[in-house]
Design goal:
Number of strands: 7
CATH architecture of the largest domain: 3-Layer(aba) Sandwich
Strand content: 5-15%
Structural class: alpha+beta
Strand order of the largest sheet: 2-1-7-6-5
Number of domains: 2
Bound molecules: glutamine
Helix content: 40-55%
Shape: globular
Number of helices: 13
Length: 309
């Protein structure tokens, strides 16, 4: 497979799904409802550091839950995969990403670091003496993945801060069960800020490419995660990256991925590349309809499903 094969697959998927009108922007975070629904970008970054893109691949949008996949590297490197599994978990919930039922049904355990509960518990494990120090650690790690510092989308941050009482409730619930590791209100604020960071589709592909490339950003050459933690991180993405529709996704692609309610999805193809897609309208699970369909087509066209012989 060469770069013109990848370019052709990206262009074909973009052309096929650009006219798809299914889904709707997230509206529980009011600011996300205002993003133009027609935006649609796709980008791939190979382990050789090649970038291939089509459509609105340089338009910034809120990273949202995709940030969970990269903050996870920071905490895995800090405490190790066995401790992460014990303190947060490594099992799918089978419930929506902000489910309280899933927590209550499992004795207060968040179950995995990719649902809101587990992601906030993971942020509560980030080292740092105070909010500023923790935030600096998160920003530094995410910047290493992206290859440049990421900026907060102030409007999304304000909008999400004004409407995140459900997440605050989840954090306090975990705290009451002994599965939160720092002050809940401070951590929910840091989590909300992290979700409000702007990325482009190209940024997401660069970020995912470290996981395909043994933990080294193929554009900058910087190590972003310890190699020994990648398999466990990708196992979490494989189990829970697209919330309660991860099984359907895996059935069709065989690959670890992570979505966010801003409309982005990034998929990791170990030892080959990462591919990202972005378009705001979401399905009922919270996954971008155009992005998911386009990625499924691209994976099929390029023969990237590792479960197929
Ligand atoms: N910040 C969002 C939330 O906490 C992230 C959710 C998502 O992208 N699924 O609700």
């Amino acid at each position: 497979m060469n770069s013109s094969d990848i370019q052709a697959a990206l262009a074909a998927a973009h052309a096929k799904y650009a006219s798809c009108t299914a889904g709707a922007n997230a509206s529980y975070i009011p600011e996300l409802a205002k993003v133009p629904s027609t935006l649609f970008g796709i980008a791939a970054v190979t382990t050789a550091g090649e970038t291939i893109s089509v459509g609105d691949a340089e338009t910034p949008f809120a990273i949202e839950s995709i940030s969970k996949a990269f903050n996870l590297a920071l905490v895995m490197d800090q405490i190790g995969a066995p401790a992460l599994r014990e303190k947060v978990g490594a099992d799918p919930t089978g419930e929506p990403f902000n489910s309280v039922l899933a927590i209550v049904a499992h004795g207060g355990r968040p179950l995995n670091p990719l649902v809101n509960a587990g992601a906030m518990a993971t942020v509560s494990l980030v080292a740092g003496e105070n909010s500023n120090a923790i935030w600096a650690n998160i920003m530094q790690r995410l910047a290493a993945f992206a290859g440049h510092p990421l900026k907060i989308n102030d409007d999304v941050y304000a909008s999400e801060s004004a409407t995140n009482s459900h997440n605050k409730g989840i954090a306090w619930l975990l705290d009451s069960a002994g599965y939160f590791y720092n002050q809940p209100d401070m951590i929910v604020d840091l989590y909300t800020r992290m979700c409000s960071l702007n990325v482009t589709t190209k940024d997401l592909a660069v970020m995912g490419a470290s996981y395909a490339n043994g933990g080294v950003n193929p554009i900058t050459g910087e190590r972003t995660v310890q190699r020994e933690n990648i398999a466990e991180i990708l196992a979490e993405l494989t189990m829970s990256g697209l919330y309660d529709s991860t099984g359907d996704w895996l059935y069709r692609t065989g690959l670890p991925a992570k979505s966010g309610v801003g409309g982005g999805i990034v998929v990791v193809v170990p030892n080959k590349m990462a591919i990202a897609a972005f378009s705001p309208p979401l399905d009922k699970y919270g996954n971008s309809v155009r992005a998911e369909n386009a990625l499924i087509d691209i994976i099929e066209t390029l023969g990237l499903n590792p479960l197929k012989s």
